[in-house]
DNA sequence: AGATTAAACGGAGGCGCCTCCGTTTATTAT
DNA sequence: ATAATAAACGGAGGCGCCTCCGTTTAATCT
């Protein structure tokens, strides 16, 4: 598996998505990408007509692919979690285990940032559809645990680390206030965590 | 108190409603009346523009009086509970205590019927604003208890009645299915209750 | 009664939602 | 290659939301 370069084309709707016509898939992908941006910028109340426009398609196309706003939100959400998880593998191909962990944590925190903007609809979704939460978010702890295990094996971070503790520490950023300092604050948090993890490591 | 005829003019917003200009009060009342009808017919999602149109005013007027849909829903709700409570006094002026009780229970059940249609927004309101619930719905048990006490004193119903039990019995109609039989069903329920209450009464 | 003025009116306008259906286009069969 | 066909497109149109502001009018003052 994973023998192709696979630099960008990775998606499709795993369960329900049969073979789509080429143009359909193109438009679908563009819509998801555009929507992700729009939701990040304006929250999930962003104008769907505007998303369609920016994606260069008619509203009809948007509604055909995603019958309701919630459908679109859900797909975007799933996509981003998957991208986050996939990034772990890619990063570890180019960086040392500890640098991979650090970079991935930065991305995780950035990911959380966009979710705060989506809070409104997302909460509804997660409440009414807990399967979604389990399905996609469920992978995150596993990925993190894997990255930590590698870094431990590598000797670049200490061995007595509970990955769940690290996840909780990172998740705290979700409830931080929206100040412009937010970004720096979360960068420092990750830095702090890494310092703690490296302290007393075999190869430190 | 209550020395005037007072056949219809009873409303105003008790706490916040200062003295309104004559035309303003007219429009406000008409809007509430029209909205009550619309909500009963189409649920709380009824078109506000349509309500304004039917009330013979511009939408601007509607929005000035009721900034949000929820405001309007709340006012309509309060109004109806008050009307229901006031009806008790009026009815008892024209009917015997047991007939008053019977007729009032019919109205109560009819009132519940409209609330089922409003379920959507009303639930939100009652959750976020429990003061509203306590304020207005709180009077209902008291009114019912009063009517029952009168009929007991009158000897037309038996004395060993817990008014709370009666209220619970009536409230059951809230969760009945929407069949066309609904109305008959609830009429029979009230009849049944009255038969039970009259059984073994001193003057029966 | 007439003038004044602040309150109230009302609807046009801009935007977003969503559907419907005539047109375009990728795919399949020949 | 070409035709046939089913899939997909896209935007106009109808409706509802809400705001803004020029016009009307009830209440007050002289």
Structure description:
2 copies of one chain form a homodimer. Chain A is mainly alpha-helical and 204 residues long. In chain A, 71% of the residues lie in helices and 0% in strands. The first copy, chain A, contains 9 helices and no strands. The model of chain A is unreliable at 1-16 (pLDDT under 50). The chains hardly touch. Chain A binds a DNA duplex (30 and 30 nucleotides) through residues 20-24, 27, 47-50, 52, 57-61, 63-64, 69.
Summarize the structure.
Two copies of one chain form a homodimer. Chain A has helices spanning 22-42, 48-55, 59-65, 69-94, 97-128, 130-137, 139-154, 163-171, 182-198.
What would you call the quaternary organization? Answer: homodimer
Give a count of the beta strands of chain A, DSSP E runs of length 2 or more.
0
Give me the Rg of chain A, rounded: 19 Å
**Low-confidence blocks of residues of chain A:** 1-16
Helix content of chain A: over 70%
Structural class of chain A: mainly alpha
Main pleated-sheet profile of chain A: none
Tally of DSSP helical segments of chain A: 9
Strand content of chain A: under 5%
Report how far the terminal alpha carbons of chain A are from each other.
Answer: 35 Å
